[in-house]
Design a protein that fits this description.
Blueprint: E1 3-4, E2 13-14, E3 16-19, H1 28-40, E4 45-47, H2 56-68, E5 76-81, E6 83-84, E7 89-90, H3 94-108, E8 113-119, H4 127-139, E9 143-149, H5 153-162, E10 167-173, H6 180-183, H7 203-209, E11 213-217, E12 221-222, E13 227-228, H8 236-249, H9 253-262, E14 269-272, H10 277-284, H11 293-302
Parallel strand pairs: 3-4, 3-14, 4-5, 5-8, 8-9, 9-10, 10-11, 11-14
Antiparallel strand pairs: 1-2, 6-7, 12-13
Helix pairs in contact: 1-2, 2-3, 3-4, 4-5, 8-9, 8-11
Length: 308
């Protein structure tokens, strides 16, 4: 499995991450087999969040890890905090960050987290309070690296002013269909299309300038929570393009769609959320493919975009 250099972050991280949101759908034993399959494929990075089924995903991960017999120190375990759906708040307060980490460690049966991400912006956040929480978590050994998820450039910059630790990750939505992170610059000053609207204020380039690794979530999804575009009747051209390249490279369409993201020179990680070992093996084949410049653009255009 190809690894990635995360500046100031965990070493030897796999470019593909197993997202554990759907792990509660599996029995403990099946979840343990899923973890072992991932490790056998070279995937050593696992993503979770306190809000995934109200912590049940973290609990099942911890149970599966114990049952798997895998060595903890060879894994990179990441979770996210800040989304408190039970009380309809996004909460980056010092108290909530600290309590969330303690709860996550307890649920997963771990002594430390490799990475903690702040999960979507809290509109009332105080960067100095965040900095205090991060200092306490680092000094106690509970968290080794820090980052964010779905956070815009100026909020990142303000956090960077106060937070002493490097912010090493920004987890963001990206897929062939949801490609605005990459392509907004295409349509600059074009009043004839809504694609000209700058929705992220140069977030991709900001992260690249400041050595913040991007993790792409929902890489096979259309819309924010629409579903998977693979074999979807609303995306015939995209699926035809994926099918053509899948046959050419001898892999699945899913692998080609993931390879499209991995081809970008920002050197991103991609999060795969399947809980099917066969599908995970098929997805991992994306790492053996490097699409050509022309193939990348062919898929981009097949997804419904155009060259201005």
């Amino acid at each position: 499995m190809e690894t990635i250099k995360i500046a100031h972050g965990p070493e030897n991280a796999s470019r593909m991450i197993l997202g554990c949101m759907r792990m509660p759908d599996l029995s403990v034993q099946d979840a343990a087999e899923m973890l072992k399959t991932a490790v056998d494929l070279g995937i050593n990075y696992f993503d979770n969040a306190t809000c995934y089924t109200d912590g049940v995903a973290e609990t099942r991960f911890g149970e599966a890890l114990k049952a798997s017999g895998l060595q903890r120190e060879k894994l990179i375990v990441q979770t996210k905090c800040g989304l408190c759906f039970d009380r309809n708040e996004f909460d980056w307060t010092r108290e909530n960050i600290l309590e969330s980490v303690d709860d996550s460690l307890r649920r997963m049966g771990l002594d430390y987290l490799d990475v903690l991400l702040l999960h979507r912006p809290d509109l009332l956040y105080d960067p100095e309070e965040v900095a205090e929480a991060f200092d306490l978590l680092e000094s106690s050994g509970k968290v080794r690296h820090f980052g964010v998820s779905n956070v815009p450039p100026m909020m990142l910059e303000l956090l960077r002013k106060y937070v002493r630790q490097p912010l090493v990750i920004n987890q963001l939505q990206l897929s062939l269909e949801q490609s605005q992170l990459i392509d907004q610059a295409f349509y600059i000053n074009n009043l004839s299309t809504d694609r000209s609207i700058d929705r992220d204020n140069g977030l991709l380039d900001f992260c690249r300038l400041h050595d913040i690794t991007i993790q792409a979530w929902s890489p096979l999804q259309y819309g924010m929570i629409g579903g998977c575009f693979l074999d979807h009747p609303d995306y015939p051209e995209l699926n035809a393009g994926l099918d053509k390249l899948a046959k050419q490279y001898g892999v699945t369409k899913a692998a080609i769609a993931l390879a499209w993201i991995l081809r970008h020179p920002a050197n991103m990680q991609v999060i795969v959320g399947t809980m099917n070992p066969t599908h995970l093996k098929e997805s991992a084949e994306a790492l053996s493919i490097r699409l050509t410049h022309r193939e990348w653009y062919e898929l981009y255009l097949a997804s419904g975009k155009y060259l201005p």
